[in-house]
Design a protein that fits this description.
alpha+beta; 3-stranded antiparallel sheet
């Protein structure tokens, strides 16, 4: 993934704040607009992944990948330098 858009960064930040299940994520971030592909871009870019809940509750959870966490950390570092 080349450049991460501000909306994609918002998605990554939103996921990073607390555990998110798949249905909650789809309700908040799915779009029918072909110009707003934030969720799809993050998923296909390897920034997020969907996996089974570790607690065995049968719920699908959305988590940042190592690449997604790195992208978020890099973006946060650039923001703090710009405003610091």
């Amino acid at each position: 993934m080349n450049e991460i858009t501000p909306l994609t960064l918002q998605l990554l930040e939103w996921i990073a704040t607390r555990p998110r299940n798949y249905s909650e994520t789809m309700e908040a971030w799915r779009s029918t607009c072909p110009r707003l592909t934030i969720w799809e871009d993050a998923l296909s870019g390897g920034l997020v992944q969907v996996e089974a809940d570790e607690n065995g509750a049968g719920e699908l959870m959305v988590r940042l990948t190592a690449l997604g966490r790195s992208a978020l950390n890099t973006a946060s570092g650039h923001c703090s330098k710009a405003f610091g």
